[in-house]
């Protein structure tokens, strides 16, 4: 057991913790189904009302509604999760957010960012969830595994022109160790081709809340931290995107280790 895992193990013990975990699961799943079903049922009316009030295109409206849905998931779990964020208010737009990936819940916490016009660039499997597929396509989310690269660039360029944000999980899959996995190059190639800066975003604690491969949720502490932006213009040359990828991953590795160490120290002090 590592020093970081030891306090986590001590925290996940005792009758009171088990009762909280039980109550979390008994309340979350029924409320999740109700919230999701209500959102799907109300979405046609909401799309029309948002269009009349804001004049936004349907892609942006759908992204806003998805953000509201995600925020609802955060609110449902909030009695059992201590959440804090750092540096997100200063994120400039447009930008490309690259986020480490620990849990299915990571995307819900993106709804806590101070803007909602976010396009997710993900793999093919989320598009196979039939209850979400229509909304993901309306929101112009990107299937980076299947879509032609020129279509990805075109959609992102249009998003950036409206000061929107594109989110990548460069690991591609959830980490089962808490450590960063190797990065794919898509986000960094996009940054080089468009000149839009990369903003690394670190999340911790969602792997405690909902670990990969599990259905049971656990009380946890979730932290979200934005690192300073990285200008792709500083990485010239044919392989500039590879050096950009390496630099961003190194920064995120250091920040993630610091945050995980701080979380362990906080558990010990309590």
What does this 3D model show about the protein?
With 270 residues, the protein is α/β, with parallel strands linked by helices. The protein has a single domain (5-269), classed as Glycerol-3-phosphate (1)-acyltransferase (3-Layer(aba) Sandwich). It contains nine helices and seven strands, in the order αααββαβαβαβαβαβα. The protein has helices at residues 5-11, 15-54, 58-77, 106-109, 130-138, 149-161, 186-194, 206-209, 240-269; strands spanning 81-86, 95-99, 118-122, 142-143, 165-168, 198-204, 220-226. The protein has a seven-stranded mixed beta sheet with strand order 1-7-6-2-5-3-4, with helices on both faces. α5 (130-138) links the parallel β3 (118-122) and β4 (142-143). α1 (5-11) crosses α9 (240-269) and α7 crosses α9.
Low-confidence stretches: none
Elements, N to C (H/E): HHHEEHEHEHEHEHEH
Number of helices: 9
Proportion of beta-strand residues: 5-15%
**What gap, in angstroms, lies between the N and C termini?**
20 Å
What general outline do the C-alpha atoms trace? Answer: globular
Radius of gyration: 19 Å
How many distinct domains?
1
How many beta-strand runs?
7
Determine the CATH topology.
Answer: Glycerol-3-phosphate (1)-acyltransferase
Strand order of the largest sheet: 1-7-6-2-5-3-4
Largest sheet: 7 strands, mixed
Examine the secondary-structure arrangement and name the CATH architecture.
3-Layer(aba) Sandwich
Which structural category do the helix and sheet elements fall into? Answer: alpha/beta
């Amino acid at each position: 057991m590592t020093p970081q895992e030891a306090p986590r193990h001590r925290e996940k013990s005792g009758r009171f913790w088990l009762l909280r975990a039980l109550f979390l699961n008994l309340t979350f799943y029924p409320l999740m189904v109700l919230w999701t079903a209500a959102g799907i049922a109300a979405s046609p009316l909401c799309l029309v009302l948002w269009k009349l009030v804001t004049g936004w295109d349907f892609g942006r409206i759908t992204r806003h509604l998805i953000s509201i849905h995600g925020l609802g998931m955060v609110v449902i779990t909030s009695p059992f999760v201590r959440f804090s964020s750092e540096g997100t208010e200063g994120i400039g737009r447009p930008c490309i957010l690259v986020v480490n990936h620990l849990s299915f819940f990571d995307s819900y916490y993106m709804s806590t960012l101070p803007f909602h016009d976010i396009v997710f660039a993900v793999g093919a499997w989320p598009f196979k969830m039939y209850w979400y597929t229509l909304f993901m396509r309306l929101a112009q989310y990107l299937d980076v595994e299947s879509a032609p690269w020129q279509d990805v660039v075109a959609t992102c360029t249009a998003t950036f022109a409206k000061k929107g944000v594109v989110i990548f999980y460069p690991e591609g899959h959830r980490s089962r160790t808490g450590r960063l996995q190797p990065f794919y190059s898509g986000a960094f190639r996009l940054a080089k081709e468009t000149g839009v800066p990369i903003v690394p975003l670190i999340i911790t604690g969602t792997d405690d809340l909902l670990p990969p491969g599990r259905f049971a949720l656990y009380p946890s502490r979730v932290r979200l931290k934005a690192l300073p932006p990285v200008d792709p213009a500083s990485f010239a040359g044919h392989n500039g995107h590879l050096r950009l990828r390496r630099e961003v991953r190194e920064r995120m590795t250091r920040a993630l280790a610091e945050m995980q160490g701080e979380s362990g120290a906080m558990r010990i002090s309590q």
